[in-house]
Amino acid sequence: MSTKALEGIKVLDFTHVQAGPACTQLLGQMGAEVLKCEMPGSGDSTRNWLQDVEGADSLYFTMFNGNKRSLCLNARTAEGKDILTRLIKQSDVMVENFAPGALDRMGFSWENIQKLNPGIILASVKGYAEGHANESYKVYENVAQCTGGATSTTGFWDGPPTVSGAALGDSNSGMHLCIGILAALEYRHRTGRGQKVAVAMQDAVLNLCRVKLRDQQRLERTGRLDEYPQGELKLPIGDSTPRGGNAGGGGQPGWILKCKGWETDGNAYVYFTVQASAWGKICDMIKKPEWKDDPNYNTFEARRDKFFQVIKTIEAFSVTMDKHEFTKWAAEYDIPCGPVNSFKELAYDPSLRKVKTIVEVDHPVRGKYLTIGSPIKFSESDVEVTRAPLLGEHSEEVLKSLGYSADEIKNMIANGTTATAKA
Ligand code: CAO
Fold first, then answer.
1. Is the predicted pLDDT of residue 344 greater than 80, yes or no?
2. Exactly one of 57, 92, 170, 215 is catalytic; which is it?
3. Is the pLDDT of residue 147 over 90?
4. What is the rounded average pLDDT of the residues 28-32?
5. Per-residue pLDDT at 250 exceeds 90
6. d(Cα 42, Cα 13) in Å, to the nearest integer?
7. Catalytic residue status for 239
8. Distance from C-alpha of 414 to C-alpha of 42, rounded to nearest angstrom
9. Atom from ligand 1 closest to the CA of residue 139
10. What is the DSSP string of 45-108?
11. How far is the CA of 222 from the centre of ligand 1 (A)?
12. Which is nearest to 212 in space by CA: 271, 145, 125?
């Protein structure tokens, strides 16, 4: 018996680029049967983005479209609309992230989809929420990071707004959508009713910036944000949540510390958290036992104007050690601290391979490549990570299973409704 959590759930994947594909890939890793539908000839545009192996699908595509089958489907032709109709009737979930209104223009509005299959869950990602003044705008990753508040609060106070390397707009929206789909499946399980699930990229980013909206309200009420460096550095705080450099966002102050080799290695750093409850242990660690009971140091309030002095004192130790050595040393004192890992380190980290978070898969054209496995681990359910499909690799088998004859499939290939590829 299969132990996959989403075994038997059929997902019609009408997604492209990253936000939608990240969602459906995760559903696939958890065991759903995901069918990616793409335009014949071109497919998801990311198949060609930043290609590193001539003639092979890019890593962008292959790393976001594992655990799927591929059907070439031109939903603009009459036959294409017929295929889509048959697929909608037999699917549990349909996921899309086209530009606002594109699905309606294809003739598949939510009302029409519901008529075809009242139990289906239609899950969509858009840049802005329905009803928002900008609801018709197209949006990409970094645009969403800006509109959702992440960019205005990232970087240093004397530098420009900065986007994050993490896909807060794309993959994060896909993860939010995935949660919505699972909740809608549970609702359907109870009521038999499907529903539309929508996630706006702006909202998904904002949802990760909760503490920044907290800080906006604290700033408006008190005129200060004591855990930000601006106070100690005598910089104006302004009237909206500022950029705090590497200051901790949650309430426990912290900073990035130099480690041995920082002069030549841009990632020879650790993040060190000056957790209030660990102050005594920090003092032991950095050989400043006299600070433990000193009223000038032993409370967060007392340290407010000496944070960088404290950080410099800790850094005098960290700079003599390798970042992993220092992390281990801090852990011995039970202090939350971690290395700034480079992607070279992450790619080859034996622990990440062991826990199957970094996984190697084999592809018929590009050969072996690394991808990220499910970060969600189950005690019972199996999580499998498989390669991305070639464009149209499963067209024939899918169309046959939908009841089309060999001649009909041949005609649909000839008139551009579908296309096939062999692995
Ligand atoms: N059959 C028929 N038509 C298809 C098709 C298929 N298999 N696949 C795509 N199309 C059509 C779409 O329906 C759309 O038709 P219209 O011309 O009627 O709008 C057209 O191809 C182009 O799709 P698009 O407008 O979505 O694509 P784009 O490259 O211009 O825009 C993006 C891309 C991402 C900006 C836009 O899709 C968008 O804003 N999506 C919502 C937000 C989102 O998910 N953004 C993040 C993407 S991850 O970085």
1. yes
2. 170
3. yes
4. 98
5. no
6. 16
7. no
8. 16
9. 39
10. GGGGTT-SSTTS--HHHHHHS-SEEEEE--TTSHHHHHHHHHHHHH-SEEEE-PSTTHHHHTT-
11. 45
12. 145
